[in-house]
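Hi support team,

I'm opening this ticket because the web form for multi-chain structure prediction keeps timing out on my end. I have pasted the exact lines I submitted so you can reproduce it. The total is 673 residues across three entries, so I didn't expect it to be a heavy job. Is there a limit I'm missing, or should I split the entries? Thanks in advance, R.K.
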Amino acid sequence: MYAQMVDTGTPSSATIDAREARFQQRIDDGIRIEPQDWMPERYRKTLIRQISQHAHSEIVGQLPEGNWITRAPSLKRKAILLAKVQDEAGHGLYLYSAAETLGISRDQMVDDLHAGRAKYSSIFNYPTLTWADVGAIGWLVDGSAIMNQIPLCRCSYGPYARAMIRVCKEEAFHMRQGYDLMLALARGTAAQKAMAQDALNRWWWPSLMMFGPPDGDSVHSAQSQAWKIKLFTNDELRQKMVDQTVPQAEHLGLTIPDPDLKWNAERGHYDFGAIDWDEFYNVVKGNGPCNRERLETRRKAWDDGEWFRDALVAHAEKAAQRAAAKAA
Amino acid sequence: MKNQWPLWEVFIRSQHGLAHRHVGSLHAPDATMAINNARDVYTRRNEGVSIWVVKSVDITASNPADKAELFDPAQSKVYRHPTFFPMPEEVKGL
Amino acid sequence: MRTARCEYLLRFGDNALILSQRLGEWCGKGPALEEDMALTNTALDLLGQARLWLSLAAEAAGDGADEDTLAYLRDDREFRNVLLVEQPNGGYADTLVRQFLFDAWASLALRQLLGSRDAAIAAIAEKAVKEVSYHLRRTSDLVVRLGDGTERSHALMQTALDALWPYHHELFIGDAVDAEMVAAGIGFDPASLRDAWLSYVREVLAEASLTMPAAGGWAPKGGKQGLHSEHLSRLLAEMQVLPRSHPGARW
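Hello R.K., no limit was hit. The queue was backed up. Here is the completed structure from your submission:
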């Protein structure tokens, strides 16, 4: 939240170290950091990057599923999908709002996205080729997102944690509708079942990549964990997701496209095959199947909408002037 | 960035609630649109019967650095709490 | 051969369905996040109304049909929506003007149906009228703001208004089905809404500094009888593709 504040002046370097220690102590004690609290500049910058990236993912994430709204095969499914894609817009909005408390504007963040300076989750650069893809995304992608987001409800930064609580409440429906869609296909005709299997084949590996590079390769992890803005490692979450999803796939009667997938009794987890990290880095770099299209769609929506946004500002100003003139 | 819509904080009171709670923020060109947008963004799951919107710049918040001064003194004034005064149990209406 | 009542229900259902379908095309592509969400709410409201109307129509048809059979397996010749709602989205100004003209009519129409002797119809109207009141309030407000916004927004809104105006006539043309519904105390005479509609729209346009197009002129119609523009069959081809390519499948 923004607030009018008294400027306390610039502290000496001795004061900064003590401040940083007190800051870390608060985090260790589980006390939330709020917008006007002192925070290390790196904490602020890291959070801005993380929260805005999360927000961008929600907004771009509307597009692959939005692709099937006009072709949803029943009115009920159409309504569910509309509501879900709308939720993604809402999540983006809550997250942009949380990021704004850190001193960056939404317009600046949107500009960063459109100019290619900001990232969003790699998963949304894949195409939704069939109706089953909509189910696969809800089941696998939202399922993974939930795994990442629930711990974030306990993160150290107040506005981010509160946004996550709201998001998580809504996200549970997303995963369920995806799985429900897959269930209907799995129980359907041979063609529907094949459609479901095909979607799983194409979305499985990208969903695992969604958690990010292996822990060894992850640059920002350790500090983020100390600051409680990242609560589990990439590999931890990835393993959790595999363990959770295998029985779900079995229930659907579908085969996960990994010949190396095997229960390891010693570890108490599923072993799974090697991820093609070249593909991941290539997609992150901008060479996935849909990167250019996704960004182009967002840019176009923004540019085409400029007249609308500007006109509403103009009208509000006119109305204010008229009101002032009347009062005078 | 030219022509940004200002930021508004949104407060919603639920059907059975007694007070408006802060639920988040949004952008809108003026108050009427802020209310409409708040309705469309923050009440899709039957969250509320009343909406307040306030321009973020109009909110004045207490300075976190003053926390000790502002709030600690209240901690030692326990006599403000009813439980401070043990009452004879036999006497009603106290 | 459907009964007049069934035909009547299809008209309301198809208006809501086709308009909802058009609005759904904007999801994720609106001019601002908050606006995107508001428009999607409208699409969801209309879809909900469509489902109620179509379910009732399916019941009336009595041949084992349901809301989905009606939505996904009829050809354009069997759809009963007015031509206005099937017009393409165009730019956002066109979409908003189309919505405004429709909302102003729907608000009046549903209020008429509140007094219908047919309890099921009155019940749908009661639910829908609250939603449509909000839609009308929202679109009226936007028409004023954009008509009286910038020069550019004013021009876009005026162009949209001029282009869509001819489609309003059909809303007020009654036929034998309407007459039968009026006689049965179930429906209303479309022509009876014209003056109120014009009066409301005139007021909003004036506040928006937009010019109401001249009276008379081209008045396309035929949607209620199943004779549509070229747009509808293309819209349906997209909407209906999955059930048609997987006959009998459940989703």
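A quick check on our side: Residues 208 and 219 of chain A are 19 Å apart (CA to CA). Let us know if the file doesn't open in your viewer.
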